Fold:
Amino acid sequence: MKAMPTATVPEVRRHFIGGRWFEETGKTRPLRNPATGMVHGRLALGGEAEVEAAVRAARAALEGPWGRMTLAARCDLLDKVADQLLERLEDLVAAEVGDTGKPAHEARSWELPRAAANFRAFAALARSRADEVFRMRSADGLEVMNTVLRAPIGVVGLIVPWNLPLLLLTFKAAPALAMGNVIIAKPSEETPTTACLLAEIMAEAGLPDGVFNVVHGLGAGGAGEALVRHPEVRAIAFTGESATGRSIMATASHGLKALSFELGGKNAAIVLEDADLEAAVAGTARSAFLNTGQVCLCTERVYVARPLYETFVARLAEEASRWVPGDPWQLGTRLGPVISEGQRERIRRYAALAAESGTVRAGGVVPVMSEGLEGGWWFAPTVWTDLGEDHPCVREEVFGPVCHVAPFDTEEDALKMANASPYGLAGVVWTRDLERAMRVSRRLEAGLTWVNSWYLRDLRTPFGGVKASGIGREGGVWSLDFFSETRTICVPWDES
Ligand code: NAD
Structure:
């Protein structure tokens, strides 16, 4: 296993406040590499004091040069951040692989370049967006012009999870900065390292001190909760579990903060009888096992037209065996470990329940790993069948490399089962008939539906879920709107 370069990442991942690394007050916790289980650093655990210091630094930046900077100048800085993210791609890959154990080539080929793409896309969008003007004539004959402006909110808190750490943080940070806000980021306590590197990159790119701050620590009772509680943090953009969203909403209600929530999912794929079977099998395997099933968009329920069902299940089980877990630095490795011991235990409990009541067609076990990786948190790609629709493995988000496949007889039945979920983040429809694809997609209760594909993202499109999968939309102008206060200035005049 390649070690993380220590030249760029210090032993303790510290808070970054007001353009400086913050001396930790003593409380730290070990960081473990999920591929080996070995300690590879320590995390400073912040709380109210660190959040208070970050708010003060952020406010000073807002009242200082950042607050006076033009939108065009801010966007030029964001482009510089994008350039430097790509220049330091290998440092970022090492940091992300160290924190998550994911295959290095996945991080290098799409996940981390996406962080740079986030900065470029939101800079371009913010630059080109025009303010709206509404003209009318009043009852007493005056010409009236309403100009709609978008102003920064002020201090915004970004709370992100561990599955795609830098990708998800930059998806919020880029539009927040484009709109002129100042940021306090709270990365996951499992994956803090790329946020530290991002802070360094922002400073090198020339962002004024205090514009981008990072406070590390736990969620409930730690830095996350302190951030949500702080009266001067005016908005929280959160990505994580639905249950955490509920608790953040309760805390934020005291301060009446603006909230954007990207939450959990229990995403369904529907394979109609005219689907290209091979494409559907390979696509479903990818949508279930990519990032070890730890993408909020991952498919965990697959509904297959009965004539295709047996062949589909046999082929998917075969395909699962091609997702070989192994050393993240080896090119052939497709599957990384699960993020933590706790998360692996959770998945094992679900697997035990599935084995009791249904059929395990692939995986369901902890794989035997080669030397050096035995201490990591591995779990084999898993396919279950024959579980009832109310089984916990079919109803609850597992967030691991697992999926359940069930047959259906009519399109109506497929939709009924797919929609009988408290979640509604993403869906996939496999069919060769475009009209049918549209009909089924429109009735699927999901914020995002892919036809014959998965996780194809145009950053200008809205992203988010319905039901327990989220509140609000990010992506494109939806992010720019969330991260700004829309104001109207009304000017009447008498043309006569
Ligand atoms: P999580 O909710 O446990 O933690 C996410 C972040 O919230 C972490 O930084 C954590 O420290 C913080 N946090 C936890 N409790 C908090 C509290 N009470 N107050 C403030 N902050 C708190 O989620 P996770 O386990 O890190 O990530 C996995 C979950 O994220 C899954 O449910 C997955 O579906 C979801 N997710 C959703 C999306 C999406 O876009 N919809 C994307 C990725 C992940």
Remarks:
- Residues 159-163, 168, 186, 188-189, 218-220, 224-225, 228, 239-241, 244, 247-248, 262-265, 296, 397, 399, 425, 465, 470 surround nicotinamide-adenine-dinucleotide (CB under 6 Å).
- The chain has a mean pLDDT of 96.
- The radius of gyration is 24 Å.
- The first strand starts at residue 12 and ends at 13.
